[in-house]
Design brief:
single chain; about 300 residues; alpha/beta; TIM Barrel; 2 domains; two-stranded antiparallel ribbon; 8 helices; about 40% helix
């Protein structure tokens, strides 16, 4: 009997845009789509879904790379769409879907393209999530294992609420190649078409587990390294590279670039990443436990 195929349904590249830590903007990922494809191959993935925040250009770049090099993997065009009710993964898309619509409207647009709608981390305490709205929406799947949530609660809540009405999926939520494949989806077959049919038929199951703490620490170090490299280039260049998804870094004022450069160097050469990782671990567990109590109190 053939072993099941493996797909990572939830990954990000440098096309995922910027977030903010207090008042400081930082890129969600500095990883090129081609690097994520190479990482997926090394980790034995048959299908890779690239689901950048409100963008599909990263997935297109990855598909071009696979086609040009005739690689033994398929890339699915996906998007993690910010809706008015929480985030939704649109998979097998043909066109980008604009953020800001209701969850129901977004799902309808996904299905109009022949795509599939999956609720990522539905009970997250740090990402916009659908929560118990999943029960009223025409979703195709629920992410019951998100490797980005290391606490013992968020994935358990998703597993409790998923029931049998949706396909159960797993995804790494990787923002770096090291994190890719920490969690994944098992399905009958090997191709993207097989994955599509498996989600429709609810024949998927999650595999893997939460990302190791070291993967989170190394991701943060990688962000600092990537930003520092862009800053060095921007200080020596008098133009913004065409099509660079991290072009926002080039547009910073010169004195802010110097401050940011010093901060990146300080972060990379001191124990700060480890200290932040340990403190963050405690915060994640506390928030996860709080979310668990909050959800169960509304169920009683």
């Amino acid at each position: 009997m053939q072993s099941p195929g493996r797909a990572d349904l939830h990954t990000h590249t440098c096309y995922s845009g910027f977030n903010r830590l207090f008042f400081i903007p930082y890129p969600e990922s500095v990883t090129l789509p081609e690097v994520m494809v190479d990482a997926a191959l090394k980790k034995g993935m048959d299908v890779l879904c690239i689901t950048d925040h409100n963008e599909i250009k990263g997935a297109w770049k990855a598909q071009e790379y696979v086609k040009a090099n005739r690689l033994a993997i398929e890339v699915v065009t996906g998007e993690e769409i910010t809706t008015a009710d929480g985030e939704i993964l649109g998979l097998f898309l043909q066109e980008r879907i604009a953020p800001g619509l209701t969850a129901a409207e977004t799902i309808e647009l996904i299905h109009d393209q022949g795509g599939l709608a999956v609720a990522p981390h539905p009970f997250s305490y740090r990402c916009p999530s659908l929560g118990r709205r999943v029960e009223q929406l025409k979703l195709d799947g629920i992410e019951v294992l998100n490797a980005g949530h290391r606490d013992a609660y968020v994935n358990r809540l998703a597993q409790e609420e998923a029931g049998s009405s949706f396909a159960h999926t797993g995804g790494s939520d990787a923002h770096s190649p090291r994190m890719l494949g920490d969690a994944y989806t098992l399905f009958p077959g090997r191709t993207a078409d097989d994955l599509y049919k498996a989600i429709i038929r609810k024949e998927t199951e999650p595999g893997g587990g939460p990302a190791p703490l070291c993967h989170w620490i190394l991701w943060n170090i990688g962000i600092a390294h990537g930003v520092a490299a862009k800053l060095i280039l921007s200080l020596t260049a008098d133009y913004i590279p065409d099509g660079d998804p991290l072009a926002r870094i080039y547009c910073m004022r010169r004195h802010n670039k110097v401050i940011a450069m010093c901060s990146c160097m300080l972060f990379m050469v001191t124990p700060l990443p480890i200290i932040c990782g340990i403190l963050g671990e405690g915060w994640l567990r506390w928030k996860g436990r709080k979310k668990w109590k909050e959800v169960h109190s509304t169920m009683n």
